[in-house]
What does this fold into?
Amino acid sequence: MEGVCAAAFTAFTVAYSGYFFTHLARHISRAWRESALWKRPKGRKMPSKVYLLQLQGLSMQHQAEGQRQHLLWLPLHPRKRLKRRKVLMNLPLLSAQAQSKHHQAPPPLSWHLQELQQKALKEPPVPKLAKMLVSEGDPEAEYTELETIGKGGFGTVCMAVETATGEEVAIKKISLLQESGSELCLNEIQVMRGNKHANLVNYVDSYLLDEELWLVMEYMDGGSLHDVIRETRLAEGEIAAVSRECLQGLDFLHSKQVIHRDVKSHNILLRLDGSVKLADFGLAAQLTAEQSKRRSAVGTTYWMAPEIFTRKLYGPKVDIWSFGIVGIEMVEGAPPYRMKTSRTVQELISSGGRPKLQKPRQQSAWLRDFLHCCLERDEDRRWSAQELLQHPFVTSAKPTSELTPLIMATQQFMASRRY
Ligand code: 3AM
It folds into this structure.
């Protein structure tokens, strides 16, 4: 009996001390974590189990003002971690009540959150450039939104009508808190405002609404060339018509010392009447007397010119190479090397490769020669947009109105798949 009592007592002591020490350890680690919350993390190391959020909007403003980048870190309760975008989007607008509903942060943290929110409300995270570029006014009163055309990491594009005139427009909405997207959109606004042409998607207006940048532009009711290429087959006269229109747009941009830097079928938009226009000027670069060439590697891999891959200085002719790739897309339905990885494409083009048609004999000599002039590796020997507009393949183009049946057929195919 004595032995049984001693064993039970020993078991109880061991179990209790285990329970006691576990709780003590948890208590100490919680106290350490809470004290660590108020320290700014060094380098990439962050306190464990503490979720820290950079308030991008605020740091963006500091950057815009040319100050040293200042990082603010917002601790969130580990179990109630919210999606970063949702927190950022809601942050300046949350009331204390909504805050506790959404975040349910423990008292010292919600206090910290409130302080940051108040700061964000006092100093809205709006770069100065955006304020300078956009118009005053309430776009929600001026436009009535009808449908969303596209959604992605960049933001949203929707179709709307101008309330006063009934004119259709497309509105691109980008969150200013999404730093890279808003920089591209601001660049796009700057380029579009200064360059209006019949073969460019034209700028209508731009606004700042809360933390969103709105770019209002011409609405292209025929979708993109990419859709047409995917759904139908273009005859040579139609390829030539698209080429003439795009080259007119490029010739205009290049005469204004602007490089588009992202020419591809997705960025060539159409109207049902057959109009063809270049769109998406987010990556465009304005050359100047001081900076007549660029070196940064931007664009979309399959369409990028060799001089970009090889990190040489480059000029407007990179757009001509990209248009040559669009030419191959129009013939074959996809850019060359489509099945290869972007790394392989980069290696192929950098090491002297020249994209070719898979079945060149099925195309006319003029079309082959036109592509050859666009896809000349040597930038100096590559034709300019102005020269290509005189090429017999281009001068033999059909009128753009002949593109209408193709665009309508594309829309019907796409709609039939949706329903
Ligand atoms: O998502 P998809 O490819 O169908 O073509 C653009 C893309 O459509 C379209 O918006 C989507 C996201 O970029 N888009 C862009 N600008 C446009 C405009 N001005 C446009 N559609 C009509 N008019």
